[in-house]
Backbone:
């Protein structure tokens, strides 16, 4: 609602066409960015916590928070894209694990690193395609479809690992996951690149722009001649490939593939995306917003840790934040 | 006992900007079927909604059995014995016949569980009263439309109904099903129930009613015994006499055939329609609500499943099964239902206008914002869309401007054939004229336009040629120059047939 009001005032100032147009345009552009609110919130919380919570403000703390977010950031990116299209993907956590263990098992079985990576990515793509196919061609709703594949992919992980942690990879595979540029790890750089590229693509590329239409009103999108099926399948391939790539990186970082990896990642990603402005009704959201939502969740988590609040409270509080975010989403949509 | 069941005295109802009913008086006897007819927007639905307690009148009196009554809500209406069977059936397909009849009031036993035995015997009782041989336990999804309608009637009777309102009960029924329903209505009438029968189909009205009341523009034109009337007289009463005749499309368009369809069929709605649209021609396809003209447009656009024995486009055979097929053939469909199919309400005017032409405003994989804005601005100017800016949400625009946004999006495609489904529904008079002007201009520029509309003046205003549908078939064709509202109405109500 507030965003709408802002836009209206923007348009009023716009029409007078004064000479200070350039400066004004810049301000307008800044205001129009939905994530501005969230950025201020995250910044505000960051400063507040730095001043009040011991050790919070240290560079070390920030870097370790960033480090812990790499995989979730990639998964959230995919989830945001799915939410924009009016979809949903619960299987990301399991797909993350499936690629993580496939790459491990393949290398332990003696395949080369690159071949193993390709196989792991193909595995992820297969899950994504299965989701997309069932959702678009058969017409099962995304929630049930991805709930089913979530179980299948997790089961697949246990089948191929027989429940064991897989270790013993060549150095060339584990090195990048543990390398750093100065004090910033390579993985953080990769995640940042993924976010930036995906954000720009979602804003500007013709193919991904279609998702806003599909998520906003699927029937109108069809009437407008948009190939809804193809775009939808693309969405689930993307979420799965991002999750799969994250899984491979995770195995590289920890030098181990753990069957339990990525459990609950889907809920965290949905929470982050919705806090970041994506709507469960589709048609809204940005990758940058999702990333900021994730950072916001991490800030809260980090404060809880630094304040020595029992671990048992963390899940509770994260859940409560999500509940507030989705309730706001519903309330905002009900009012119009 | 007095015969008079219901009396309505001088009821008036005004909605913002519209006088829906003006001093309407009406009465209904026990054991009578009283038909209410009139064009779309004549006030039939408002009158029925007042009786059912859905709408409250501004002034006037309603008497049941000689006692003045207030009907502030549907529950009170039911208490009084007034039941309405809506055009859109409200059955629960997965539940049984019995559960549908007693929805919300299932009989319970002492434990609070549903008492199946009582439910069965009660349901059977009402089905017997209607002489419908149905097993109360079969799920409604297994039944045809006429039986669903009868279940709604059984439900109405189970409330102790003595006044039954049927709103277009036959529009979804086949001829055979209609005959069954009309028979049941006669039987109910003979048992002393009063029935108000709202219908566009004059044949049925004449077949079943005792009296007919004609509404026009919210006022009663007249009430007479059916036996003393004939369809021509009723049509003359129904048609609005405008002092200034609406502007008409001059001259026929003699382009070459662009789109030809033979034997277009949509299950339950359209039964073998042939259609041709030439270049530079506006063909008006009309009929009363439920006649199938809407479905013809949707089928042609690939929006609903259909069969056709032959479709040719510029002389070449074409195949249209999906919306995308239709677009590839150079057809663009402007949907009637703006909110569900036309607009992306939470996206901006800009995004709405360019939605169908993303490939025109891109370079490589990127959408070129400047190009997109230029394109949108062009249509905003040429269609005079009133919006504070390109970035305004479409949600915040007026109905007329929203309609123009849908139109603008259709035009960005440069389609050769435009299928406009009710393009001015809910649009004010000024915007209406602008849209009509625009359609004429497009035809002059060589586009082929199929205009689907239930408003006869609109059809008359822009069509070169008019096809009238009734009950899923084209029953008449008349040139725009020769058409009058009376002629169209006569054909649309199934009374006259003009085919060459």
Residues:
């Amino acid at each position: 609602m507030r965003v709408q009001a802002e836009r209206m005032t923007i348009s009023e100032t716009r029409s007078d066409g004064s000479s200070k147009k350039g400066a004004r345009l810049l301000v307008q552009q800044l205001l129009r960015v939905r994530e501005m609110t969230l950025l201020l919130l995250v910044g505000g919380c960051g400063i507040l916590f730095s001043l009040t919570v011991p050790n919070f403000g240290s560079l070390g703390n920030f870097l370790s928070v960033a480090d812990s977010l790499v995989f979730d950031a990639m998964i959230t990116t995919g989830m945001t894209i799915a939410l924009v299209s009016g979809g949903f993907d619960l299987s990301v956590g399991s797909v993350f694990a499936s690629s993580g263990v496939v790459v491990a098992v393949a290398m332990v079985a003696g395949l080369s690193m690159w071949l193993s990576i390709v196989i792991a990515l193909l595995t992820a793509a297969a899950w994504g395609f299965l989701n997309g196919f069932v959702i678009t061609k058969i017409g099962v709703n995304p929630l049930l479809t991805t709930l089913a594949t979530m179980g299948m992919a997790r089961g697949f992980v246990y089948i191929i690992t027989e429940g064991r942690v897989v270790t013993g990879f060549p150095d060339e595979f584990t090195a990048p996951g543990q390398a750093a540029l100065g004090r910033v790890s390579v993985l953080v750089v990769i995640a940042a690149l993924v976010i930036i590229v995906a954000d720009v693509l979602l804003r500007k590329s013709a193919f991904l722009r279609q998702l806003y239409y599909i998520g906003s009103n699927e029937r109108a999108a069809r009437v407008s001649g948009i190939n809804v099926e193809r775009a939808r399948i693309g969405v689930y391939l993307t979420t799965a490939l991002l999750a799969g790539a994250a899984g491979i990186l995770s195995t590289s970082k920890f030098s181990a593939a753990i069957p339990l990896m990525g459990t609950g990642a889907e809920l965290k990603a949905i929470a982050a995306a919705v806090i970041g402005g994506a709507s469960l009704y589709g048609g809204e959201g940005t990758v940058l917003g999702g990333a900021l939502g994730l950072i916001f969740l991490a800030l809260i988590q980090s404060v809880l840790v630094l304040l020595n609040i029992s671990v048992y409270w963390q899940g509770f509080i994260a859940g409560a934040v999500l509940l507030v975010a989705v309730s706001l989403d519903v309330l905002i949509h009900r009012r119009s | 006992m007095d015969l008079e069941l219901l009396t309505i005295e001088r009821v008036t109802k005004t909605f913002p900007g519209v006088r829906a009913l003006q001093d309407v008086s009406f009465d209904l006897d026990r054991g009578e079927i009283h038909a209410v007819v009139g064009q779309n927007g004549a006030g039939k639905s408002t009158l029925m909604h007042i009786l059912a307690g859905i709408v409250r009148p501004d002034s006037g009196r309603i008497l049941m059995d000689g006692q003045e009554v207030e009907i502030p809500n549907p529950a009170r209406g039911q208490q009084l014995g007034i039941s309405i069977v809506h055009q859109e059936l409200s059955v629960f397909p997965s539940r049984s016949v019995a559960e549908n009849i007693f929805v919300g009031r299932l009989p319970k036993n002492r434990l609070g569980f549903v008492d199946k035995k009582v439910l069965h015997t009660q349901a059977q009782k009402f089905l017997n009263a209607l002489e419908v041989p149905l097993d109360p336990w079969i799920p409604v999804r297994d039944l045809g439309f006429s039986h669903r309608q009868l279940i709604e009637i059984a439900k109405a009777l189970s409330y102790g109904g003595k006044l039954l309102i049927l709103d277009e009960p036959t529009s979804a029924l086949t001829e055979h099903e209609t005959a069954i329903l009309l028979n049941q209505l006669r039987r109910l009438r003979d048992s002393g129930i009063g029935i108000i029968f709202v219908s566009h189909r004059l044949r049925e009205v004449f077949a079943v009613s005792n009296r007919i009341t004609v509404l026009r523009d919210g006022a009663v034109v007249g009430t007479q015994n059916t036996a003393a009337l004939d369809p021509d007289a009723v049509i003359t009463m129904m048609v609005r006499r405008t002092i200034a005749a609406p502007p008409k499309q001059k001259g026929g368009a003699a382009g070459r055939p662009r789109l030809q369809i033979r034997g277009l069929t949509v299950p339950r709605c359209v039964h073998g329609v042939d259609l041709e649209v030439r270049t530079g021609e506006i063909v008006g396809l009309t009929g009363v609500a439920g006649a199938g003209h809407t479905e013809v447009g949707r089928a042609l656009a690939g929006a609903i499943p259909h069969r056709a024995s032959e479709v040719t486009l510029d002389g070449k055979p074409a195949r249209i099964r999906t919306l995308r097929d239709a677009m590839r053939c150079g057809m663009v469909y402007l949907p009637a239902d703006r909110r569900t199919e036309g607009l992306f309400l939470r996206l901006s005017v800009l995004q709405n206008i360019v939605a169908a032409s993303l490939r025109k405003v891109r370079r490589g994989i990127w959408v070129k914002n400047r190009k997109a804005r230029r394109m949108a601005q062009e249509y905003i100017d040429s269609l005079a869309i009133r919006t504070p800016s390109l970035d305004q949400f479409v949600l915040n625009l007026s109905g007329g401007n929203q309609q123009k946004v849908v139109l603008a999006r259709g035009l960005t495609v440069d389609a050769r054939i435009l299928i406009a489904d009710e393009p001015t529904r809910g649009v004010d008079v000024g915007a209406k004229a602008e849209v009509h002007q625009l359609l004429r201009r497009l035809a002059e520029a060589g586009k082929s336009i199929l205009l689907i509309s239930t408003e006869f003046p609109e059809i008359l205003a822009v069509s070169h040629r008019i096809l009238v549908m009734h009950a899923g078939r084209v029953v008449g064709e008349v040139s725009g120059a020769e058409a009058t509202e009376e002629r169209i109405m006569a054909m649309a109500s199934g009374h006259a047939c003009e085919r060459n």
Notes: Chain B touches chain A at residues 301, 303, 323-324, 327, 333, 335, 340-347, 351, 355-356, 358-359, 362, 365-367, 369, 388-389, 391-393, 395-396, 409, 413 (CB under 8 Å). The longest helix of chain B spans residues 175-190.
